[in-house]
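Worked example 3. Consider a protein that binds pyridoxal-5'-phosphate.
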Amino acid sequence: MHNEFDEFNFDTLAVRAGQLRTAEAEQSEPIFPTSSYVFGSAAEAAARFSGEVPGNIYSRFTNPTVRAFEQRLAALEGGERCVATASGMSAILSTFMALLQSGDHIVSSRAIFGTTSVLLTNYIEKFGVETTFVDLTDLDAWSKAINANTKLLFLETPSNPLTEVADVKALADLAHQHGCLLVVDNCFCTPALQRPLELGADIVIHSATKYLDGQGRCIGGAVVGKEEVVGTNVYGFLRTAGPTMSPFNAWVFLKGLETLRLRMDAHCRNAQCLAEWLDAHPKVKHVYYPGLDSHPQHALATKQQKGFGGVLSFEVEGDKEAAWNVIDATRMISITANLGDTKSTITHPATTTHGRLTPEQRDDAGVSDSLIRIAVGLEDVEDIKRDIARGLD
Ligand SMILES: *Cc1c(COP(=O)(O)O)cnc(C)c1O
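Given these inputs, the predicted complex is written out as structure tokens:
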């Protein structure tokens, strides 16, 4: 499909794509807080409702500010169509509801956002859609788990909290050999670092709450892919069921996209620096970060991503107490499970994000009691190091 922005590069698209100036000739994008739109006549209303004449009807269906965000993110991901949602979880829910029916089967990475696992096992399964969970990096396991009813393969890369990296191209090929779609949650990398659609994925999911906003302000999400899948099925579910994005949040995310690449580059620089420093620290047992030569998928990450991202985790010498000591000794870094913020955040996965898992499931996921995750922010990295050093030393 031809797009008017085809000839522009990423940084230009990030600040220009999707903007529609009104008659007021504003330089910055306007917000349209309106629930409905007015028609010129009864005949025009009828024509809009029948779809004969395109145009706005009601903000659960379309809103100009939301559309500007959708067009900008679609341009950045290299997708035909984007639909914005009220949260990352509603992006995932809308995708599943739109594309699956009772009797279908999903193969999903085990290392996904905890709430996504709960959605699959506690809710989607109630409607007769089963999920098989596999190791993200074990291509054989993915292949073996696919059966005649499999419709979707689902993953996040790099994974949380251990930063394992999936071979997106290989998994897209595998999905397509079996007539399945590959869905990639691109929350950790964003299109500034990784463009899954170019690698063969069919659908990209976002929690805009994280790096797209990047400043910890709003909850939102998005689904990006082909017009015939996202523009028809996913949009159809969304306008009917209603987990749509508010115009105010769309405006915040739209402005967030303008600085996305600059912020991601800075997150990567700080994370790389911190990972190398932790790696050399005598009280640190192991560091998980794709930017380290020792990372098992370092070569793949170098090829597939433009940068290694802002999230890392590490194991300290000792047990849960030792990990909690490091966390409690910080004075600047925020103790919170959120990520993708200018402010660095620190968390103990075993007792928070992964606390609902059984000890065996945590072992399987590689989440030990001494593991700490940091989403590295944009503070001076020397200040971040000092804040962590206090508990380690
Ligand atoms: C936070 C997150 C989600 C859920 O997004 P919300 O905006 O919190 O609903 C989904 N996937 C990943 C990888 C996340 O980090």
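Take a moment to read the result before moving on. The CA atoms of residues 111 and 159 lie 6 Å apart. The mean pLDDT is 95.
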